[in-house]
Write a structure and sequence with these properties.
Strand content: under 5%
Shape: globular
Helix content: 55-70%
Structural class: mainly alpha
């Protein structure tokens, strides 16, 4: 997040549905006034949806070899092959 409104770190928690009480109410009141936070929240909600869909496949093994490198499949794919030692 590039904004300086002070809510940047809260957006991920909010997108996961883990923010409650006055903090959540403050963020909900802030969102209509901050285009930057609206855009970032939209992106984070998309990530949450993808993660929710992949949760069921966690025990099937990695197709990318990422588990051997302790990385997510997306990170492993963008990183490329691990260098030789």
């Amino acid at each position: 997040m590039r904004g300086i409104c002070g809510y940047e770190l809260d957006l991920g928690v909010y997108a996961l549905g883990r923010m409650t009480g006055p903090e959540a109410a403050d963020l909900r009141a802030h969102l209509p006034r901050c285009a930057s936070c609206q855009a970032e929240l939209t992106v984070l909600q998309g990530v949450v949806r993808v993660l929710a869909r992949t949760r069921g496949s966690a025990g099937r093994g990695s197709r990318s070899g990422a588990s051997a490198r302790r990385l997510s499949g997306a990170c492993a794919a963008s990183r490329g092959p691990e260098p030789s030692r």
